[in-house]
């Protein structure tokens, strides 16, 4: 059993790590964005260096005290929240925000810097760090990597994992792994970087990273196009990729339900289509020199005759921003409506359209609900969220709070999909992972966790259930 | 201590796995391409299914018998060769070559299929599997993934790791991990796929994989350009990427020494420049519709005035093939000359040119040698190989067989580079990894190895020294 992070332990930390910021965690460290779970935490520490992180972990390891790594607090699966058990140390990286180095190809940055700060640093060097998520102003690099964040540009540029060349991290016992390589190719031993990325703070705490910087496209174009169905959307994607291989950077599916939610509750955004289409896509391309983005999109629109019934091509930066504002307002509209259950899932592309049909039928058989299905369809990633019927409250659906996700996940599983495409497992999906995960993989995960964190102090109860 | 794979154990295998191909390994299973090391192996098994692989490993695990996974035998660091100790089982994947499924986006293929077979399957579906290495006709997918192979297209498409969506693998105790996902986004637990990729058969045996298929570029262009220096080559790369972001698929540095080796010993290939330039690059681009590749390369050539002194743009498929034949003949020419020591290294791009200068000076201070420095410079990856002076034999340099690599690797290490960019550690670089590797990383690697393979039966002595 772990020991609690109480006042005695706080004193131990102060003695062991002179100068360390040690205090009581304010309310903001014990909340999560959806407001459904409240955390407990005995002691908040804010180390200012990797050496301080290592010293904190050595002390916690010796005493058997749990540690919850804390980034921007934007995670949606409770990875930053311990609801019960011995109060843990909350270790916030917020003081470690330095840019340690920047070249044309690599940004070396500390884990407490926000994703926005990384993007801005790249932009300042006239380069691109393409990872883009709605919470990037608050989300910190450590959390972005720990959860292998995805977002809208994965189609072209990959997840956080593919954009990270190396990490510096501290293991449970305080061992520092110094892996801040500026290298694209490095086959020297096991891939600890990728093991730590996506481990949600349960195997080590990432303190800094080297991120890939890329050249900016010579021309960027954005459009919204109306399609008949998700299946037509995927055909349009095929067409776009055949014409512009590797140049389609975002391909987002938007459902009519989402647009009607925006009409009903806001945020107030410009909608390009007067009649709200049942299905539309936002497509963004980035091209080499010699091609005009608007022309390329117009060419795609023409070539997609029969597949696309209407479309708007952004002809100014302002119009482009409006389209993205619409897309990025969907989660806020969802929040204002109040979902019964949200599902961050992915499907093999050839099965995605059939999944949407069958899942809608299956959920509507359970209850009178509305479904807002949208997301990064180019990656097979859907946010498939269930809402109360108009005029009804989500409290009326309390009895379905388990049946709805089970129905969705059973179907996802049957179609060979993932029950967590980009948000991770955190604490909310631990049971789902046990249910749907491959038993061989789970056994190997437990063996690795026991090997690297034998006392189970790192983010206890996240990803893997405590035994 | 492990037990030997002797005739008694062969009988045990036959009894435990009815129908399994069990025999004595022929000479070809005990050699490696450079002919420097001879392996020992007591029993050769050729399982025909994942279930058979699992049964073999269960039996080996129970008896404490070592297992060397065997793909195409093309590895250059001795990962496929055990020179001494108890004779291991050699487990060849050559019977598992099936294509299990193919869609527009994913090729599901068994580990014994060659890389060429994977490329051909993609091509048959009018898609691209971009991983390209000289040995692709023999190298098998299992080995390609186990060593995280690189090659000429990493610049645009990434290493084997980035092109693999999931693996099926068998752990030391026979546990099967079924991870053949067809998904681009899947954040459900630790990234075992990437841990197994690059682990060189020491953590598990990959039996099948899902590989990413990509759209083919609408237009492909290839050129060779003469530059003043490696530094000018990197400036040219910058320029090319600024004009055609994400569209430069290969950027290979070629030294005059390599061209002179071809003149002296063959293979007989067409050389585009009558006077052999000290430095030249082979550049390949893949463009979207609407751009002509030859024009784009001509535009680059013009824009590179002052940087590029001469150039040839391929105007036919034949000319393109000639350029690649020249590039791909360099390793064979090297072999015919006979290197004293070869080094597969990578450097941070901003330090690469300086490294080449300093390394040449340092090696020439040791002895009168020739250096052929070439490779995937766009990824920072160099093959930096030392040869005898003209008219001398490599035997005369026997006393420098340790000093030369040490000099190179010390410098690589000082410049923040990697002592193995794409070939891996195998057995030949185990000592180098201990010397230059991060101690924290090595400790974590040993903990993971002990957790997943407690008896140390999987590819014993590869990557990590046996204790």
From TrEMBL, chains A, B:
All residue ranges annotated as the FAD-binding PCMH-type domain in the record: 37-216
Cross-referenced InterPro entries: FAD-bd_oxidored_4_C, FAD-bd_PCMH, FAD-bd_PCMH-like_sf, FAD-bd_PCMH_sub1, FAD-bd_PCMH_sub2, FAD-linked_Oxase-like_C, FAD-oxidored/transferase_4, Oxid_FAD_bind_N
Any one GO biological process: respiratory electron transport chain
Pfam families referenced in this protein's UniProt entry, alphabetically: FAD-oxidase_C, FAD_binding_4
Cofactor(s) annotated in UniProt: FAD
Domain of life of the source: Bacteria
UniProt-recorded Gene Ontology molecular function terms: catalytic activity; FAD binding
Keyword Membrane carried by entry: no
Keywords associated with the record: FAD, Flavoprotein
Stated family: Belongs to the FAD-binding oxidoreductase/transferase type 4 family.
PANTHER family according to UniProt: BLL6224 PROTEIN, D-2-HYDROXYGLUTARATE DEHYDROGENASE, MITOCHONDRIAL
Protein name: FAD-binding PCMH-type domain-containing protein
Biological classification of the source: Bacteria, Pseudomonadati, Pseudomonadota, Alphaproteobacteria, Rhodobacterales
């Amino acid at each position: 059993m772990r020991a609690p992070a109480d006042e005695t332990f706080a004193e131990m930390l102060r003695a062991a790590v002179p100068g360390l910021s040690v205090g009581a965690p304010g309310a903001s460290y014990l909340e999560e964005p959806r407001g459904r779970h409240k955390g407990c935490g005995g002691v908040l520490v804010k180390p200012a260096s990797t050496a301080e992180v290592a010293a904190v972990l050595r002390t916690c390891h010796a005493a058997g005290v749990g540690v919850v790594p804390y980034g921007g607090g934007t995670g949606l699966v409770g990875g930053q929240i311990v609801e019960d058990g011995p109060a843990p140390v909350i270790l916030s990286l917020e003081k470690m925000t330095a840019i340690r180095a920047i070249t044309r190809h690599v940004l070396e940055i500390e884990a407490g810097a926000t994703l926005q700060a990384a993007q801005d640093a790249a932009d300042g060097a006239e380069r691109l760090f393409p990872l883009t998520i709605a919470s990037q102003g608050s989300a910190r690099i450590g959390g972005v990597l720990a959860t292998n964040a995805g977002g809208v540009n994965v189609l072209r540029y990959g997840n956080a994992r593919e954009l990270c060349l190396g990490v510096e991290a501290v293991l449970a016992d305080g061992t520092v792994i110094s892996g801040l390589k500026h290298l694209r190719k490095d086959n020297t031993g096991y891939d600890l970087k990728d093991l730590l990325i996506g481990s949600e703070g349960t195997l080590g705490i990432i303190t800094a990273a080297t991120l890939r910087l890329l050249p900016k496209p010579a021309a960027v174009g954005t459009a919204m196009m109306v399609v008949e169905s998700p299946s037509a959307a995927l055909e349009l994607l095929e067409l776009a990729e055949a014409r512009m291989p590797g140049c389609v950077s975002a391909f987002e599916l938007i459902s009519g339900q989402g647009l009607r939610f925006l009409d009903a509750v806001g945020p107030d955004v410009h909608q390009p289509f007067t009649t709200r289409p049942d299905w539309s896509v936002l497509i963004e391309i980035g091209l080499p020199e010699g091609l005009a983005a608007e022309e390329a999109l117009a060419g795609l629109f023409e070539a997609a005759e029969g597949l696309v019934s209407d479309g708007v091509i952004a002809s100014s930066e302002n119009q482009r921003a409006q389209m993205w504002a619409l897309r990025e307002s969907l989660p806020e509209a969802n929040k204002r409506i109040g979902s019964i259950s949200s599902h961050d899932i992915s499907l093999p592309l050839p099965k995605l359209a059939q999944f949407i049909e069958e899942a809608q039928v299956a959920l509507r058989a359970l209850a009178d609900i509305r479904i807002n299905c949208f997301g990064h369809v180019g990656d097979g990633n859907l946010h498939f969220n269930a809402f109360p019927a108009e005029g009804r409250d989500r409290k009326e659906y309390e009895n379905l709070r388990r049946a709805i996700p089970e129905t969705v996940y059973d179907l996802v599983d049957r179609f060979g999909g993932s029950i967590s495409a980009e948000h991770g497992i955190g604490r909310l999906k631990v049971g789902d992972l046990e249910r749907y995960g491959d038993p061989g993989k789970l056994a190997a995960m437990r063996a690795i966790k026991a090997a690297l964190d034998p006392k189970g102090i790192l983010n206890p109860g996240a990803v893997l259930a405590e035994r």
